[in-house]
Specification:
The complex is a heterodimer of chains A (about 325) and B (about 250).
Chain A lengths: L15 H16 L6 H26 L7 H15 L4 H28 L4 H19 L5 E2 L5 H8 L7 H19 L1 H11 L1 H6 L4 H27 L1 E2 L8 H10 L11 H20 L4 H26 L2
Antiparallel strand pairs in A: 1-2
Chain B lengths: L6 E10 L2 E11 L4 E6 L5 H8 L7 E6 L2 E3 L4 H6 L2 E4 L11 H5 L14 H15 L15 H14 L4 E5 L7 H16 L3 E5 L3 H7 L2 E6 L2 E6 L6 H10 L10
Helix pairs in contact in B: 4-5
Classes of the chains: A mainly alpha (about 325), B alpha/beta (about 250).
Bound molecules: adenosine-5'-triphosphate and magnesium ion (MG).
């Protein structure tokens, strides 16, 4: 048929972030023989999961061409909600998982309608939502620490269980990556999200339900961020609402590092996951080597700047 | 117009903050009729196109399909009435490949909302090679394609589905002579199938050859309408520039 592989490079099939990940793993293994020990590998995997789930939702929103900066506040809201609901008996456990996620989806829906129906700028709208949520939650708990006295074992198991020795959150994260890869790569919904991110007006003219599809991306992001919050609640059993919630920028860092275009239309959930792992590997090695937090931040900043420079260069190559 | 026209615009006006882009335009296209709309840059042709295709709502006036008044809340509405549009801007998603753009908003699906990528690729490939046999390597972002290739995608997808009125806003602006001739043949073929065509073009010679009627728009108003058989290129150009016919007797 009329396709010719001619001008394609390896980067069209495997995103460069996967090559970076392999290099990072090999380098880490060479630097420290502790890196590949089973416990350390699991620690690396687990480290990125909370941020990673948030980043997956933000990836979908950004492929549609928009930013969701309310995710950190949704994480906090959901964690507080889960503990306030009181996961002390089986029925409460289900509610403590499902209700925060529904609340997150609802918040996302409001974000989505503000952006796609009312035409608000997504950065402004979702930062506004962030202030609103932080204010509402702090008012609701009077700024106090939230802890549930009596947490059912089944709620703690959400973050603590280890089927086949692998932490359940890692398993859930892997399943989410797989599911979102299928949704974005193989379904009509995913195709429409890419189209909207590529050219929202062309999408509307093609008859795509832009408001419905775009709003769904925010609802998904809200639900995923809320699920992260539930995982935190399950993991630690108490929440300081003034101390958590700074997830949106680390997550956005991973999204960008994974190659999702800041202007929309390009990106893959699995590449965001790879970026999450790259950050986790680098952080882990620096921790093993006893580098201090400022150095870690510095290195992450350099990695991100390098990634942005690379992606800009690559896109300029193909610009018309 | 004898019987009810396929699509009819009656007294259409459209204002944009301070700009009166259309000032009461009447225009009808019948089945199997090719109507050309010509006019200077900024005359209001593309605004008229976008009203017909549901992109903008008119400020005033009425759109009728088969004699019945309709309103288009979105481009999807206009498509439902069989109005297909090739936009001057082409309206392609640059990040997607040719098959994806070809089927944009009308994806072929399998169960559970899964894309049928194989069938979309082969159908798009066939439709595109009908228009341009040299069109290869269709599965790359259309951003990387030539202006003519992009235009071919917009044309091919507009005629592939159930079209009753085809609106073409300068469809050959980026095409070479061979491809332009092919679009001419395409217009003749669609016309013989009873499809109505509204053709916007700056190429008066082409328009004289292809159209049954030529409507001239100037500053948002219809200033004249001629049949190519009873008219001349000079007369049409004069209408476009001056908004009136040559004084009788002075025609070449
Ligand atoms: N979205 C818009 N907002 C404001 N004004 C607009 C818009 N679209 C068109 N106009 C104005 O309406 C007028 C008619 O524009 P239009 O694009 O219809 O011209 P045209 O006849 O298609 O010209 P061309 O031959 O250059 O394509 C112009 O004055 C233009 O500035
Ligand atoms: Mg125009």
């Amino acid at each position: 048929m009329s396709t010719r592989p001619g001008t394609r490079s390896i980067a069209d099939f495997v995103s460069p972030i996967w090559i970076v990940l392999v290099v990072a793993i090999v380098a880490a293994a060479l630097i420290s023989d502790r890196f590949l020990s089973p416990n350390n590998v699991l620690a690396v995997l687990q480290q990125g999961v909370i941020t990673g789930i948030v980043a997956l939702g933000m990836t979908v929103v950004l492929i549609g061409g928009q930013f969701d900066l309310s995710t950190g506040a949704i994480v906090m809201m959901a964690a507080v909600m889960a503990l306030l609901i009181g996961p002390s008996h089986p029925a409460g456990v289900a509610a403590a998982i499902v209700l925060p996620v529904l609340a997150g989806a609802t918040v996302g829906t409001v974000n989505g309608l503000a952006v796609y129906k009312a035409g608000a700028n997504s950065i402004v709208a979702t930062i506004g939502m962030q202030f609103f949520l932080v204010g509402a939650v702090l008012a609701a708990v009077s700024g106090q620490h939230v802890r549930a006295d009596d947490i059912a074992a089944s709620f703690s198991a959400l973050a603590g269980a280890r089927p086949l020795g692998i932490p359940l959150p890692v398993v859930i994260f892997a399943a989410l990556v797989a599911a979102l890869s299928v949704v974005m790569g193989k379904t009509v919904f995913g195709r429409h999200v890419y189209a909207i991110g590529g050219d929202v007006e062309a999408s509307r003219r093609a008859g795509i339900a832009v408001v419905r599809t775009g709003t769904a991306t925010f609802a998904l992001s809200g639900a995923l961020a809320a699920f992260s919050g539930v995982l935190i609640a399950s993991l630690v059993g108490h929440v300081d609402p003034t101390a958590i919630g700074r997830y949106e920028f680390p997550a956005l860092t991973a999204v960008v590092l994974g190659g999702t275009s800041l202007t929309g239309g390009v990106g893959r959930p699995a590449d965001t996951a790879a970026a999450i792992l790259v950050i986790a590997v680098i952080t882990n090695v620096m921790t093993i080597l006893d580098y201090q937090y400022p150095v870690q931040l510095l290195v992450q900043g350099i990695v991100l700047a390098g990634a942005v420079a690379y992606y800009s260069w690559r896109r300029a190559e193909f610009a018309r | 117009m004898a019987a009810a026209a396929l699509v009819e615009l009656v007294g259409i006006t459209r204002h944009f903050a301070g700009v009166h882009a259309l000032k009461g335009v009447d225009l009808a296209v019948g089945a199997g009729e090719v109507v050309a709309l010509v006019g200077h840059n900024g005359a209001g042709k593309s605004v008229l196109v976008q009203i017909l295709s549901g992109v903008f709502a008119p400020t005033g006036g009425e759109i009728r399909v088969a004699g019945r008044p309709v309103t288009f809340a979105s481009p999807a509405d206009a498509r439902r009435y069989g109005i297909e549009t090739i936009y001057q801007t082409l309206a392609l998603a640059d990040n997607l490949d040719a098959p994806a753009n070809f089927f944009l908003g009308r994806e072929l699906r399998r169960a559970f909302g899964f894309l049928d990528k194989k069938r979309m690729s082969s159908e798009a490939a066939r439709a595109l090679s009908d228009l341009n046999p040299n069109f290869i390597d269709i599965e790359r972002p259309v951003r990387q394609m030539s202006g003519g290739q992009r235009q071919a995608i917009a044309i091919a997808r507009a005629i592939h589905f159930d079209v009753k009125l085809l609106v073409m806003d300068e469809p050959t602006a980026a095409l070479g002579p061979h491809e332009t001739a092919q679009v001419g043949e395409l217009i003749a073929r669609l016309r013989s199938q009873g499809i109505g065509i509204l053709l916007i073009s700056h190429d008066v010679r082409d328009v004289m050859r292809l159209a049954d009627r030529i409507v001239v728009l100037k500053n948002g108003e219809v200033v004249g309408e001629v049949r190519p058989a009873d008219s001349s290129e000079d007369e049409v150009v004069d209408l476009i520039i001056r908004g009136r016919r040559l004084p009788s007797g002075s025609a070449a």
